[in-house]
Amino acid sequence: MNPSAGSSQPDITYLNHETTVSSWLLTRDHKRIGVMFLVLVILALLLGGVFAMVLRIELLTPGPTIISAMTYNRMFTLHGVTMVWLFMIPAIPSAFGNFVLPIMLGAKDVAFPRLNLASVYIYVAGAGLTLFGMLWSGADTGWTFYTPYSTTSPTAVAPILLGVFVIGFSTIITGLNFITTVHTLRAPGMHWSRIPLFVWALYGTSIIQVVATPVLGMVLLLVCFERVFGVGLFDPARGGDPVLFQHMFWFYSHPAVYIMVLPAMGVITEVVCAFSRKNIFGYKMIAASTFGIAFVGFFSWGHHMFVSGQSTFGSGVFGVLSMLVAIFTAIKIFNWVATMYGGSIDLKVPLLYVLGFIFLLMFGGMTGVAVATTSLDVHWHDTYFIVAHFHYIMVGAVLMAFLAALHYWWPKMFGRVYPERWSFLAASTIIFGFIVTFLPQFLLGNLGMPRRYYQYPAELQWLNVLSTAGASLLAFGFSLIAVYLLWSLRYGEASAANPWGSKGYEWHSGSPPAPHNFTEAPRFEREVHDYTVPEAPRAY
Amino acid sequence: MNELFRRMLFLPEQASTVAKDVDQLHYVIITTTMVAATLIFGTAAYFLIRFRRRSETEVTRKVEGTLGWEVLFVGLPLGTFLVWFFVGYHDFIRMQTPPPDAMDVYVVGKQWMWKFTYPEGPNAMGVLRVPVGKPVRLLLTSRDVIHSFYVPAFRIKQDAVPGAYTQTWFEVTKPGSYRVMCAEYCGLKHSEMWAEVLALSPEDYEAWMQEQRRGLVSRRDASPSAPEREEPYKPARQAARYDAQEPHGEVMYGERGTLAERGERVAAERGCLKCHTVDGTAHIGPTWRGLYGRRERLTTGETVVADEAYLTESMMKPQERLVEGFAPVMPTYLGELEAAEVAALVEYIKTLRGARLETIRSEGPVYEPIGGK
Ligand code: HEM
Ligand SMILES: [Cu+2]
């Protein structure tokens, strides 16, 4: 059936060549490290998801429902911190990036395999510290840690800040590793113009990570200093400037949303090509827009601060620059859609997630343009409209792309096929559940419900109930995925070397790949995702 | 049309002069974006069906973007976005620039209530009474953490930042009661930090004000929606150092007299008058007579209008923008003066304006930072 089916697969793979526990824990193989990250980020997703469900259940009634206000406030902080720093930022780069980036470049491993292993343990240490803070007493500042509340709140903010600070190093190391790998370990024939777009996306992301994360680290440490030693940087009662924190925080965290979303866009590019059996419509435009986003993303942070007392002129500048970021995103969307033109499209589950992605990103991005319009944002700022906007973008993008990647590369990683029907059901449930969850939140925001509200006016109840119903659907979809993926690990059908007939370079290796990725040197004779040339049969 | 869209988009009533303009742009943008998004997604869905895989061995053509397409992809949305931006920014400037004839009210956010002080005397907690049809400028600050003053029906929102005064304004178009909420997370009872704007007809407002002036100045006006509450825990900081500074802490809420009269007392007690005069002669520092609204020449050669923001900044960060001809000797009062005292001082300085009385705020929009930064 399949063009590449029937080719021989390697007998010794990265999964079975060594099987002791220590061979995993001390491995320097980027593929095993990717798998370890995959497990870790899925645990984080689960934890953050449980918090989210509790929050949604609490909001079923306008007053107290199941938890106290204090618990609620801590819970949304934990939800945000876990999802942002433990899931969305590392998910795609650290798990899938680690796994496929070297293979795509024809390399045996990343440039610094030991550092790569260290990044796992740094992540674990940071996550541990954060969890410790949560159990100790839990911060109630929101994931944004705005001062002077965060420097005066009686909860355990410091361990959580330090935890996030530590995780930042993991991110930086991964970024450095990717940048160096791309520069030094490309196989012969891998010109810059042939680099897969997923790699370009990771490369752009890595630059943001390396440049911006230290700023976040600094500002978090400063908040810690202020809490512990009482230095007066942000608290006006001690002579500090509370809004300074917001500038420093968003200088990192605005680009950080692109740390989350750029790798997701990279995944989408790969999947669109593979399932449309087409080359990408505008290779250069997609690669360039990645850097456009990475660059302009650094100069739009002020759109989070239109009502903070920032100058009117400043708001105007940040507003215009935000529009530019939106353009780069629009370019990508147009190119993905145009790629499908003239293709041979097979609507498998990864592509279904891509459609979900495009749908959500479009509405999320369009509402982004709306909130970047200064006069409108005054009404929307800090309301549920914003909550809906960034969930559409971040969850819509990162989660959809994560699930697309998970299904697309599942055979590559584990050599098993997942059950198509179950996964189709789960994907439809998730996309539908997602819309039911977050669409009402746009309306809640229009009605004027501020975010981080434990209690709300009674007339807003039905929209909140609707949202919680959607969240339950989402949770159901996720449990389905968990069940059938675990099932397929054991009982799933063995996969062909290239079950999708994809012409992404990562399929040059076996599925699952051999310990050093290739049993014979890969040859890059064609451009990536060029489906017009027939592929020579390949021994893996 | 307006009403239809408003209901479809679940927007609250439009009770201020800017609300309708803001909403109008809202309709345009949301409609256009949704139509565009649907079109693009519709195209994707169409391709999905039109180009679905028919056989496993199907070979596709190579299609590559041309410059024309890419220019269209970039130019069309960019042009649209910029138009929206300019229309929106036009409204935004208006929302940020109080009209010259606006009446002032000082607003202080505090965990978890809103307090309002009128320069003419009255204080109120939880209820802001304003006349319909008159612009009201709010000068906002906070006693502890950042709060955000949000009136959905007016489409306005402004952060109240401790240690600085920010401003916003509105003009109510119809009498009624409008909900005020806190939009910036501020701790345990953030979601209960509500107040009410009570828009009265000018006659009712005047009557209320007269009543307040007849000796009821310090009466606390407790709102049903935001009663003064017990604080369930002490924040880690010594519950705001400002409170430790009694009796000054009560200058806004406890004492009698107009805000300006209270300001005169604060100036004497806090030692401002050791360096500043009120009779027009320069001393160690610039005189306060005629200061409000004056154009001051700075050591950097720039000029600045001495408005509320600059006056506040001069108390908090006196060295930041020094007036030419004076030594940098003024100590900072950041963390020393309570928000209410700053308000009182500013009002006092305003009463010393002498002959040039009306020049301030009629000079067109002032694009100065409204916070003290
Ligand atoms: C493409 C990826 C995007 C991501 C991942 C993203 C993510 C986010 C996040 C996380 C927030 C909320 C931050 C918070 O307050 O907690 C946010 C707010 C915001 N976003 Fe986006 N966004 C994206 C696209 C856009 C675009 C294209 C625009 C503008 C053209 C935009 C404009 C805004 C604005 C103005 C806010 C702040 C609104 C407010 O707080 O009042 N976003 N975004
Ligand atoms: Cu608040």
UniProtKB/TrEMBL annotation, chain A:
Single GO MF annotation: heme binding
UniProt entry tagged with the keyword ATP-binding: no
Gene Ontology CC annotation, any one: membrane
Transmembrane stretches, start-end: 33-55, 83-105, 117-136, 156-179, 200-229, 249-269, 281-301, 313-338, 350-372, 384-410, 422-442, 462-487
Domain Cytochrome oxidase subunit I profile: 18-525
Protein location: Membrane
Any Pfam family matching the protein: COX1
Membrane topology: Multi-pass membrane protein
GO biological process, one term: respiratory electron transport chain
InterPro entries for the chain: Cyt_c_oxase-like_su1_dom, Cyt_c_oxase-like_su1_sf, Cyt_C_Oxase_1, Cyt_c_Oxase_su1_BS
SUPFAM superfamilies to which the protein is assigned, alphabetical: Cytochrome c oxidase subunit I-like
Top-level lineage group: Bacteria
Keywords recorded for this protein, A-Z: Electron transport, Heme, Iron, Membrane, Metal-binding, Respiratory chain, Transmembrane, Transmembrane helix, Transport
Family that this chain belongs to: Belongs to the heme-copper respiratory oxidase family.
Name the record gives this protein: Cytochrome c oxidase polypeptide I
